[in-house]
Amino acid sequence: MKAVILFDGVCNLCNSAVQFIIKRDPAAYFAFAPLQEEKGMELLTPFKKDLTINSVILIENGRLYEKSAAALQICLHLQGAWKLAYIFKIIPSFIRDPIYDYVAKNRYKWFGKKDHCMLPTKDTKRRFL
């Protein structure tokens, strides 16, 4: 494990994104932790960052990425053509992040949510902190 993705553990869109990443990360570069759980909050402590469940957060090499920057940085490490998505980094974050925020604001309405954080399968359990 070299990087940790913090995500909204009750969001159906976020859980689907985690499964998507796992399938395209055969080298297990990423580990995962729900933001609602103690480990997720603990990982944010060194960054003096308030807990927010409105953004995927990537912690990589001692650096914190959030919103569209996190999503693009994650794409860099995925197998296949997903690395090409990093080209969108040329679009300034003040343009990318409002689009990200709009989806994040509506994610429960569009994709639904669970009553509790997802439970990893036997095969993926080692990837969760």
**What is the tally of helical segments?**
4
Q: Major sheet, described briefly? A: 4 strands, mixed
Strands of the biggest beta sheet: in what spatial order? 2-1-3-4
Portion of residues within helices = 25-40%
Q: Calculate the terminal CA-CA distance, rounded to whole Å.
A: 11 Å
Strand content: 5-15%
Low-confidence stretches: none
Number of strands: 4
Q: Give helix and strand order, one letter per element, not per position.
A: EHEHEEHH
SSE class: alpha+beta
Mean pLDDT: 88
Instruction: Give the CA-based shape.
Output: globular
- Rg, Å, rounded: 14 Å
Describe what you observe in this structure.
With 129 residues, the protein is of the alpha+beta class. The chain has helices at residues 12-23, 38-44, 67-75, 93-111; strands at 3-7, 30-34, 57-60, 63-66. The protein has a 4-stranded mixed beta sheet with strand order 2-1-3-4, sandwiched between helices. Strand 3 (57-60) and strand 4 form a beta hairpin. The chain is globular. It starts with a strand and ends in an 18-residue tail after the last helix. The mean pLDDT is 88.
